[in-house]
Structure formats: structure tokens, C-alpha cells
Amino acid sequence: MPPADSLKAAPSRLRHKTVSAAVADALRQRILNGDLAPGFQLRQDALADEFGISRIPIREALLQLEAAGLVKIVPHRGAVVAGLSVEEVEDIFQLRVQLEPPLLLLSAPHFSEADYAALHSLTREYGEALSAGEVERWGELNRRFHLELLRFAGRPRSLTIISGLLQDCDRPTRLQLSASGDVARADREHTQIVTLCEDGRAEEAAELLRTHIEHAGASLVAIYRRALAE
């Protein structure tokens, strides 16, 4: 039987765990929405004052975010919002260009009518989120769309890699769409890719997918380079 002291301490630990999870979720949304930019310092004392809690659950929340790759613990600076370098952005999009179009060619022949209906539904949902300015949903809907396109390729390891790449460029994708004004283009091209596949024109769909990814990557790199120059 556990010691009495440990039983008394359990509710306290549970409260800390619950509070830290709530703080981590709140900060996660701010980071993914772009409200907290890469490099922004997350000071524990300031966060504790803002949330009206002690520093213990704040520290636990920051460790959760570090494990998720959203925060870095930097010597002499503490926790800062993680970000990608220009080189990392270029690498991510180059890998996507190499992997996604060939997998679409493998996946497209296996789409059923129900699959096309689901893809069209997803493109509509994405388009509505873009039009409504629901920035917090853009990255996840974009990720879902690309993975659904490739789901029947029969290459689980490649899909795992692509899923990670899409997760890594979640925030950058939102930034690119917001800063470049490419919302209409992204919406249009997603719909065109599905329609081309449905019409049996998978080669054209794969080429459009390649162009779609290349444009997003080049646009984002240009945004990063302008920011560095400023």
C-alpha cells in the first residue's frame, strides 16, 4: 500500500498535470497561429503572472512543448519558440517535391467514388477555412489533404516521412499563405488536383502537385529571406 504522504500528494500532482496540459495547449495554439514568432522568449515568471499560477506547471508545459518540437530550451535564455532556418525550409520542400508526385501516381488508380467524394469534401472544408481566415485550421487541413491524396500508394515508410515533413511545415505553410496572399491559388490547385485524378489524368495531377509544392516552398523561402534582410 502506498505511504499516506504519497496519497496526499497525488491530488496536487494531478492538479499540476492538468494545469500544465491546459497551459501547454494554450501556448501551442499561439505558436501554431503565429502569435508567438520563432525566437520569442517564453519567460516562466511572465507566463506564471499571465496565467495566475505558479511556475511549476509552466515549467512542465514548456517541457511538453519542447518534446513536441515547438519550443527549444536554450542555455542562458531559457525557453524560446522553435523555428526553421531557410535551409531547413528548402530541404523540407525539396523532399516533398521528390516524394509526393510519384506517390500520387501510385495512389490515384485506387481511388473509389467514395474516396473522391471525401477528397472533394476536404477541399471544400479547406476552401471555407481559407476564405473565413481560420488560420489555426489551415496547416492541419492542408496536411490531411496531402496525406489523403497519397494514402493508397502502398509506401507506408514514405508516407511516414511525408507526414513528418508536413507537420514540420505546418506553421510555415500558414505564414506563406497569410503573407503571400496565395489563399485563392492554394484552394484552386487542391481542387484541380482532385479533378484531374478523377478524370483519369494522374500524370497532369502529379505535375500540378509538383508545381504546387515548388511554388509554396519558393514563396516561403522568399518570405524568410526578406525577414532576415530586415
The H-level CATH homologous superfamily of the largest domain, spelled out, is GntR ligand-binding domain-like
Low-confidence stretches: 1-14
What is the CATH level 1 assignment of the largest domain?
A: Mainly Alpha
How would the global form be characterised? elongated
Any idea of the CATH topology of the largest domain? Four Helix Bundle (Hemerythrin (Met), subunit A)
Mean pLDDT reading: 85
Could you spell the SSE succession in H and E letters? Answer: HEHHEEHHHHHHH
Q: Beta-strand level of the residues, as a percent range? A: under 5%
- In total, the number of domains comes to 2
Number-wise, the strands total 3
Question: What summary fits the major beta sheet?
Answer: 3 strands, antiparallel
Tally of individual helices: 10
Q: How are the strands of the largest sheet arranged?
A: 1-3-2
Radius of gyration: 21 Å
The CA-CA distance between the termini, in Å, is 63 Å
Helicity range: over 70%
- Please tell me the CATH architecture of the largest domain by its name: Up-down Bundle
Q: State the secondary-structure class.
A: mainly alpha
